[in-house]
Amino acid sequence: MPFHLPEKQAAFSVDTSPDAPPEGERWSSWDGATHGPTPRPSWVVTDLGAVDADLGVLKTGKEADVHVLRRWVPGREHVVTMAAKRYRNGDHRLFHRDAGYLEGRRVRKSREMRAMARRTDFGKQMIAGQWAAAEFDALGRLWELGLPVPYPVQLDEAEMLMEFVGTTDGEAPVAAPRLVQTRPHPELLADLFEQLRSAMLTLARHGWTHGDLSPYNALVHEQRLVLIDWPQVVDIIGNPQGFDFLERDATTMATWFRRRGLEVDAGVLMADLVAEATSGF
């Protein structure tokens, strides 16, 4: 079922402090943030006079919480709804699964590499920053390749704003359902698998796999598959476990489609993905 987010009326209250915006909860954080790839979609609001309002939590997770955010310019009708992913700091994240994903990534300073390896407080902060930067960078590159991912609007420290996938034309936003929540009819099921296969092949051709792909990390919006949650994106060749992650992604997704009645073979999918990933060698 789609997720209905209740309207947060307090989000549009006016703060009476001298530096507060005339509407919303805060001034837009666009200025000073890292921005997504160009050309930007026409819906992105870049005005420095825009304001933001938090409508509430959409999803909680081990590494981050996702909120729904609205941005608009006071006096104009154009209002944009976005997803705000806020990464947990080093004291509130779980790091037990970081090591395998971080293999093959590098930072410039050996001190930072040692701190990350030893999981010191500083190292945990470095890892948290890598998760945020890695997902934002991955979304930008995947968007430019035409892959079905949310557009990354901006990254400001530990908060990433991205495209909200769902319906926003009512009083309250309605998030698109996760693939695991859907029961597609046979024709749509087959089409969704082809969308998935095409996306995974394109990823493999460029040397990547999602790394944690499952029916929980895919949304279905207007019969279109959208792949989400990319902080652990894996370099298939550079990571010693790269092909293991690729096989897990392929097997997990093929198994779900097969259980829904579609005759797919995880081994065939994996063979096609390996062929793409190694085509340049």
Give the fraction of residues assigned to helices.
25-40%
Sheet with the most strands? Answer: 7 strands, antiparallel
How many helix segments? 6
Report the portion of residues in β strands. Answer: 15-25%
Please tell me the total number of domains. Answer: 2
Rg is 20 Å
Q: Count every beta strand, where a strand is a DSSP E run of 2 or more residues.
A: 14
Unreliable parts: 6-15, 92-97, 105-109
Shape call: globular
Instruction: Write out the strand line-up for the largest beta sheet, numbering strands in chain order.
Output: 2-4-5-6-8-7-3
Span of the ends, CA to CA: 44 Å
User: What would the average pLDDT be, to the nearest integer?
Assistant: 85
Structural class: alpha+beta
Query: How do the SSEs run, as a string of H and E?
Result: EEEEEEHHHEEEEHEEEEHH
List keywords for this structure.
281 residues; alpha+beta; 2 domains; seven-stranded antiparallel sheet; three-stranded antiparallel sheet; 14 strands
Structural description of this entry:
The chain is built from 6 helices and 14 strands. The strands form 4 sheets. It has a 7-stranded antiparallel beta sheet with strand order 2-4-5-6-8-7-3, covered by helices on one side. Strands 1-10-9 form a 3-stranded antiparallel beta sheet, with no helix packed on it. The chain has a two-stranded antiparallel ribbon with strand order 11-14. The protein has 281 residues and is α+β, with helices and mostly antiparallel strands.
